[in-house]
Amino acid sequence: MPKPRPHVTQFFRAGAGGLIVDEAGLVFAFERSDARGNWQLAQGGLDPGEEPLEAAYREIKEETGIKRKHLELLDPEPELLAYELPEGRRRSKLGRGQAHYWFAFRFLGRDSHITLGDQKEFRAWKRTTIHELIQQTAEFRRPVYERLSVRFANLFPTI
Fold first, then answer.
1. Measured between alpha carbons, how far is 34 from 124 in angstroms, rounded to an integer?
2. Any idea what DSSP says for residue 1?
3. CATH number of the domain that residue 33 is part of
4. What is the tally of structural domains in the chain?
5. What is the DSSP code (8-state) at residue 6?
6. Which one of 57, 60, 85, 152 is CB 3.0 to 4.6 Å from 89, fit for a cystine?
7. pLDDT above 80 (res 4)
């Protein structure tokens, strides 16, 4: 008889994320510390009572070291964008997946302003095209990043 699978609460964790671009329209991508070669945008969960934009600024600062004063808010994505985590990655804190409020920002700082925070989440960063980032992120995140690439297409250089 098969063992019963552990129960994971069926919810999508609310969060916020930031798509940060430079003047040339290149995206700042961050390599996960726990999965080399897996690049993503800064994102994270909302704290109780926290507004999505404030969460985006906080997550960006915590994960990348980039301060609010080095970001220009360009535009929000009006819809929550969700992804479902693969079964093996689901946890009681994360639930079945995540649903994020997304914001586009222009980076106004210098490279030295990117310190990767406490380096728990990310181990490296780079500038890349949105299309390269989509190819280098976890498969479950790709539909969200593809939506962001369409929504914010005016920010990216034509190829």
1. 12
2. -
3. 3.90.79.10
4. 1
5. P
6. 85
7. no
Q: Which residue has the tokens 């969200």?
A: 144
User: What's the longest Cα–Cα distance across the chain?
Assistant: 59
- Tokens 């693969």 map to which residue? 86
* Domain ranges, residue 88: 12-154
The number of beta carbons lying within 10 Å of the beta carbon of residue 114 is 18
Please provide residue 147's backbone torsions phi and psi, each rounded to the nearest 5 degrees.
Answer: -60, -45
Residue 71: band (very low, low, confident or very high) from pLDDT cuts 50, 70, 90: very high
Q: What would the DSSP string read from start to end of 87-124?
A: GGG-BTTTBTEEEEEEEEEEE-S-GGG---TTSSSEEE
Instruction: Evaluate whether 105 touches 21 at the Cβ level (below 8 Å).
Output: yes
Are the beta carbons of 71 and 107 closer than 8 angstroms? Answer: yes
Q: Which of 7-11, 21-25, 41-45 has the lowest mean pLDDT?
A: 7-11
